[in-house]
Amino acid sequence: MIPARTDVLVVGAGPVGLATAATLAGHQVDVTVLDAQPEAANTSRAAVVHAHTLEVLESIGAAEPLAAAGIHASRFTIRDRDRTLVPVRFDDLPTRYPYALMVPQSTTEAILLERLQARGGRVLRPHTVVALKRDGAGTLVTLAGGESIRARYVVAADGMHSTVRKLAGIGFGRDTNAGESFTLADIRLDSDLPRDEVILYFSRSGMLVWAPLPDGSVRVVAAVDEAPEHPTVEFVQALLDTRGPVSSRTRVTEVVWGSRFRVHHRVADSFRSGPVLLAGDAGHVHSPAGGQGMNLGLKDAVALGEALAAALSGAGEERLDAYAAARRPVAVDVVRFASVLTRLATTPGLLRPVRNLALGALSRVPTFRRRLAWRLSGLVYR
Question: Is the pTM of the predicted complex or chain greater than 0.70?
């Protein structure tokens, strides 16, 4: 049942919305979570949680169960077929989580939902926001079913196409990417490639990401001209044959799940408009290069939850302004980093030898490798 009033209304029950609500519930804030979908998604989608994100998630008790549920990948390498261009180690980073945690998004969401429920919260489904009316007391939110709920604050955690962001009149910036097409597939295969390492392959045919998952499957992501809605075994096999290793052939036996998406690089004009605040993809989107998207959103979520709790306890609106002022530059920086990785991965064939030579030279510099490890792990934002 929809309550008539709530202190904070979180729209969207993906990882970002759940983490925001769990943070608020831990401060005994009256928080309501709505989601348009009739049930939670059970696909893997985002598949990596980085070290700094795990450190942040300790505050809501989610880091330990997440770490126990995934693969601890201690290495990330950039390769051109069989040639290693840049090896990056995480196992010597100064953190309790010296690895990239490979875990399906469905598992991340389940753990965050458990943390929310343990603190007395729940998700109400399916409910779609259709109107916002702001006044001095907050926001009156109208739902598609005719119900309404008054909230002191509204959190837009409803993704790239955020209805709440649009209703609040917040612009989504200029798209700095042409909407490149990507295919994504979780596959089962026979291969001797490592199952504790994330690999970004560069090749003349394009980029390909190899990311192992806890159930023995492997996540493959590749930029293609026209991605099929449902990638087949033959399609994924061709990608691995033309972009993956040459010396050790991998044989795809099954596509467990597949999808397609287009990449956009955008950052919202502001992360706050009065009582409406943005977090996650509602505020920023970019390519999957480096696995930064969900991690950035989860850190938004905890920071916003803490800021809202402080504001509601009497600390003042300044905490919310500070959240918006601090998180947007971080989003701009992460989008820029993802753009650089994407451009490197999609370097035209004639320039590929120059790129490889430059990366090979840089990889011999310990400072470069360490800075890249800090950047990928998110520890640079401590």
Answer: yes
